[in-house]
Amino acid sequence: MIECVTFYGDIKLLPKERLAFRPSVYGIIEHMGCLLLVKNRNTGKYALPGGGVDVGEVMADALQREVKEEAGISIDVGDFLEFSERFFYYDPEDLAFHGLCFFYRCKPVSFDLAAEDEIVDDEACEPNWFAVADLRADMFQHSGDLILKWVRDETSI
Q: Which CATH architecture is the domain 25-82+104-156 placed in?
C-alpha cells in the first residue's frame, strides 16, 4: 500500500496499481518583491501556477501554457530549481497519482492577470501577486516550505 496525501491534507492508503504517473511543472514567478500565486477553488489554499505535462509536450511549453491558462500572463522559463516527488489522492475525482513535480524560476513577460471569466482551469482562480514577506508555508496547497526557501533565500538555489 502507498501512503498518499489527499487533496484536503489527509492520508489515504492505496494499492500501487491505483496510482498513475503524473509529471507536472510549476513556476516561481516573482516581480517587485511579490510572487504570483493562484487560489485553489476547492480548498482556498494557494499554489504556484503550473500543472500537468501532456504526453509529447516539452516541459517549458507546458509551463507557459499552464501559466497562461491559470493566470493569463506570458513568461520566459528560466533555470530549473528542483524536482520533488509526491504521492497524492485527488478526492474530487477519486484519482491517485505518483506525482513528479518540476520547479522552474520564470520571468514574467506580461503583467495583466486574467479576470475570473478568462481563466481556463477547473481548480485555479484569483491569480494575484503576493508580497513574499507576507507568505507562510501553511497558505500553500503543497510544497510551501520549499517555495518559501526559494523566494526568501536565493543563495540556496
A: Alpha-Beta Complex (3.90)
pTM of the model: 0.90
Domain ranges of the chain: 25-82+104-156
Per-residue pLDDT of the chain (157 residues), as tens digits, is: 999 999 888 999 999 999 999 999 999 999 999 999 999 998 999 999 999 999 999 999 999 999 999 999 999 999 999 999 999 999 888 999 999 999 999 999 999 999 988 898 888 999 999 999 999 999 999 889 999 999 987 544 3
The type of residue at 109 is: V
Give the Cα separation of 41 and 31 in Å (integer): 24
DSSP states along the chain: -EEEEETTS-EEEE-GGGEEEEEEEEEEEEETTEEEEEEETTT--EE-SEEEPPTT--HHHHHHHHHHHHH---EEEEEEEEEEEEEEEEGGGTEEEEEEEEEEEEEES---PPPGGG---SSEEEEEEEEGGG--GGGBSS-HHHHHHHHH-GGG-
How far apart are the C-alpha atoms of 157 and 152, rounded to whole Å? 10
Which cell goes with 12? 489515504
